[in-house]
Here is the input.
Amino acid sequence: MNDTTTQTASAQSAQAATDAAGEPILKVRNIETYYGPIMAIRGVSLEVPRGQVVTVLGANGAGKTTVLKTVSGVMDPQKGQVIYEGEEITRQDPNRIVARGIGHVPEGREVFPFLTVLENLQMGAYLRRDRAGIQDDMDRVFDYFPRLKEREAQHAGQLSGGEQQMLAIGRALMTRPKLLLLDEPSLGLAPLLVTEIFNIIRRINQEQGVSILLVEQNANVALNAGDFGYVLEVGRIVMEDTCANLLQKDDIKEFYLGQKEEGVRGKRRWKKKKLWR
Here is the structure.
């Protein structure tokens, strides 16, 4: 191979690497997923850029959890595509999706209550064989969540709600994910614990470069933690923008943050139309 050919090949490899770096780590394209005969989400499309935190806002029953379950393979969509790192993973088995680098922290924490904290974390690494890497990740989890280190021999069922949430996130980190799916991490927690956990979520994103898809009802903490956001209502995306811009939108302020314009007597909320309707 001559020098010109070598240089051309090197340039193509460099360009391919650049293109891959600019490609979103996750693309969801027009997915429709059902619970029996009931359509839970319809025509949902979203993207997660590499290294960013993307949040999906919505009320109870909007379809947020269904989006995450469809991405992680727990539920199969009837239509649409899930594309991860440029390859379609629609309808793949959840264990294959985990092995590809997608970690899922489900709603309600779902720790193994009769296993210890340490055993729960080890379960997160069950697909891995790199002992040194597993120990490094275990140390990193204990650095993020010192309380788990203090309770590593305690059964997970005896932990507080906040500690169980920390354990669920830590277990997902033991899969060494490139993309982390977080389902309502603030659910049922005191405000101080919510602040602590979201600070750690931002640390995970910034220090490890883990991309995060976060679904939340707590719009204030989600928008302040995220880079880009989508609003999901009755199974469809009704608004999308940067989180900074969403925080300034009147509908978001009133319907998700509970703020009203100064000096204006508010209409009853069920009589007021949202601008995205």
Remarks:
- The chain is about 40% helix and 20% strand.
- The chain has a mean pLDDT of 88.
- The chain has one domain: 23-271.
